[in-house]
Amino acid sequence: MILKVIEQNGITIVEFVDVTRFTLASADEVKTELRPLLNNKDCRMLFDFHDIEFVDSSAIGCIIALFKTAKSVGSSLKLCNLTPEVLKIFELLHLQVIFDITGTRESCMADYVK
Predict the structure, then answer these.
(1) Which of 21, 45, 41 is nearest to 33 (CA)?
(2) What own/partner pairs with CB < 8 Å and gap ≥ 24 does 13-18 have?
(3) Closest CA to 82 of 61, 57, 107, 58
(4) Which H or E run includes 62?
């Protein structure tokens, strides 16, 4: 298992365990594990990328698929703690317009409380 999933104050927090690259090798596993959670209408998910140094197109596709799943049922997905390298990829693809990306886990959780 490459993901650690915990619930805190009604928010599902997801982070990678012992992984620095989010690529094709892990995208299907991530999608398989998180999609059922996001299919719950009330799911508020925070995806913490704090140790991820690289994402490839499969990872981006996975995140887009998860976002679409969440949006289709009224759940929400926020991303936080993107490393500068990963944030740059998101910005080059203009994905910051689509995704809710915040700096820290704490600020992301605070956004959910508002």
Answers:
(1) 45
(2) 13/45, 13/46, 13/48, 13/105, 14/45, 14/46, 14/47, 14/48, 15/47, 15/48, 15/49, 15/50, 15/51, 16/49, 16/51, 16/52
(3) 107
(4) helix 57-73
Map residue 54 onto helix, strand or coil: strand
* Per-residue pLDDT tens digits for 95-113: 999 999 999 999 999 998 8
Q: Rounded to whole angstroms, how far apart are CA atoms 33 and 106?
A: 24
Chain-centroid distance, C-alpha 53? 14
The whole-model pTM stands at 0.93
Could you tell me how far CA 37 lies from the centroid of its own chain? 12
Q: Would you say 70 and 77 are in contact if contact means Cβ atoms under 8 Å apart?
A: yes
Mean pLDDT over each residue of the chain, to the nearest integer: 95
d(CA 97, CA 101): 9
